[in-house]
Every structure is written in structure tokens, then in C-alpha cells.
Amino acid sequence: MGKKHKNHGDSHRDKKHGDKHSGKHVGKSHAPKKRAKIMLLSAAQNELKKDIKEQVRVEKRWHVMGDAKPPKPPGKHYHYIDELARLQFELLKLQEWVRLEGLKVVVIFEGRDAAGKGGVIKRIAESLNPRFCRIVALATPTEREAGQWYFQRYVEQLPARGEIVLFDRSWYNRAGVEHVMGFCTEAEYREFLRACPLFEEMLVRSGVILIKYWFSVNDEEQERRFRDRMKNPIKRWKLSPMDLESRERWVEYSRAKDVMLKHTDRPLTPWFVVNADSKKRARLNCIAHLLRQIPYKNLRPVQLDLPPRQPDTGYVRPKKSSQGWVAELY
């Protein structure tokens, strides 16, 4: 009985007095996880800060331009921000030309996962008027859409006169992910390869300016970006189970891309391949190329004068307490 009581006492004492040791041990085991979590949050914050700093620097560059004077082309040693600002200035003139001339522009962005398509689309659209330039990134087809003519849900997104539409992936899903992952039948895949050039020719003949980009990234760089997305909470949403499986089917996707280009790279609707191993160079090269595809004139914004404010004729502003104001936490 005494032995049993002693063991019980030892156990009780271990729990009571061993908390410090136990806690120290637990702290050590969890310390790497805690440090890893802090590092992930730090990486995410740095990513956000980097994007914000880029935007601020571009806006400062615009402010320096002042009277809408276009920046000069870069020399051999250019700065990324300066050149991005110059190209965005040209995009504004292009958009105004598209609007005034009633042009209909479709730009397709396709390529490997993590090739940087979204980054280019963001830099193109961020300085433009969203009323005349919009991004289309369709989700998985609904049950109703799956029963439609394949191109139908994309036709609904085509531009009206004076609009630019940027497709973040497009009807070419059928030639890539749907074919490789078995989401369509072999007959549907073959019919797409036959019909797609005809569909695109019809668009061009109806007045649509169709520009198609394929973003190419090497195996090692894609893996690095995948790992970065896996570790970075800000980028984690960009990575889906489908993206990870695409790594396992790298060769199959390569073959599918080759077949797609063979069938759909036509003189009337050519593909343009962008080397996306460097994100910043890919952004500049793609935007510069896009600007060369649509002849536009050197339009400048109309000079505006700020009119005086309407004089006060007895207007009384309601008390702030009568309105639901957002709390000023910052």
C-alpha cells in the first residue's frame, strides 16, 4: 500500500513540480513551429509592403510627369518602376483611343500555373478605367453552363464597342486542364481543336481585336514559386490542389500545349509566347508588346479647370450623432 501511495505521490509531485520542466520541454517543441509561423507572417507582410511600395513609387512617378508629358523610353540601364510608369502612361492613351474609336479588344492570358499571368493583368488594369477595361476570370462551369455550347459563357463576356477585356484564362481551358485532367471527352477535345480557329476567325471578322499570350516558365522557377505560395499566407489562395497535380503531369501539359499551338496558332489569330522566368521583365515585355499590336494616336488628357464650389445658401449639415459613422481605429 505504501509503495502504491509513494508511486501515486511521485506521480502527483511530477505533475505539480514538473510543470516547469514539462512546460520548458513543450516550449522547445513548439518553438520551431512558432518561429516558422512568425516567419510566414513576416514574408506575407513583406509581400504586401513590396506591392504597396511599387504602387506608391509608380504614383510618385506619375506625379513628376505633371502636365501629362509622356516619359522618355529607357536607355540600356532602366529602372523597373520608371519603365512600368511609362508603359502605363501609354496604356492610358491606348484605352482612350479604343474608347473614342469604338474598338473591341480581347486579350487572352494563358500559360503554366504560377507563370505570372495575374501580375501582368494587374499592372495593365490598375491604371485604366474599369468602366472600359475589365478582367474576366471565370470559375468552374455550373451545371447549366456545362450543358451549353462550350463557347457560350465566354461569348457573354466579350467586349462592346470601346471596351478592353482581359481574360485570365479562357476557352483554352479545354485544350489544357480539361483535356489533361479528363474533364472532357476525347470527342469534345477534338471538336474544340477543330472549332476554336473557326470561332476566333469569326470574332476577328466581326471586328474584335484578339491578342493571345502564352506565359512560359521553366520547371525550376515554377517549383520555386509553388513553394513560395505554399509558405506565404497572402499567396496561399493562388495555389489549388489542381495546381499541385499539374506538377505531376508536367509532360502531359507540355504535350497538350504543343498540340494546342499547332491547331490554333494561325496567321489571323497568332499566339505570342512570353518568357516569364523573370516576373518583372515579363510584365514589361508583355505590356510593351501589347501596345504595339493596336495602332493608336498620341492622345493626351484634356486640360481641366476646377470650378468654384457652390456658395452656401443656408444649408445646415445634420449632426454627426444622427449618422452611423465608421469607427476611427487608425
Describe the model:
It is a single chain. Helix content is 54%, strand content 10%. By secondary structure, the protein is α/β, with parallel strands linked by helices. It has a single domain, classed as 3-Layer(aba) Sandwich (Rossmann fold). It has a 5-stranded parallel beta sheet, sandwiched between helices. The N terminus is likely disordered.
Specify the biggest β-sheet: 5 strands, parallel
Distance between termini? 66 Å
Task: Identify the overall geometry.
Answer: globular
**Rg, Å, rounded:** 28 Å
Query: What portion of residues is helical?
Result: 40-55%
The top-level CATH class is Alpha Beta
Strand content: 5-15%
Number of domains: 1
Number of strands: 5
Number of helical elements: 12
Average pLDDT, all residues: 84
CATH homologous superfamily descriptor: P-loop containing nucleotide triphosphate hydrolases
Low-confidence regions:
1-26, 64-70
Given the helix and strand composition, which structural class is it? alpha/beta
CATH architecture: 3-Layer(aba) Sandwich
| Secondary-structure element series | HHHEHEHHEHHEHHHEH
CATH fold call: Rossmann fold
Strand arrangement in the largest pleated sheet: 2-3-1-4-5
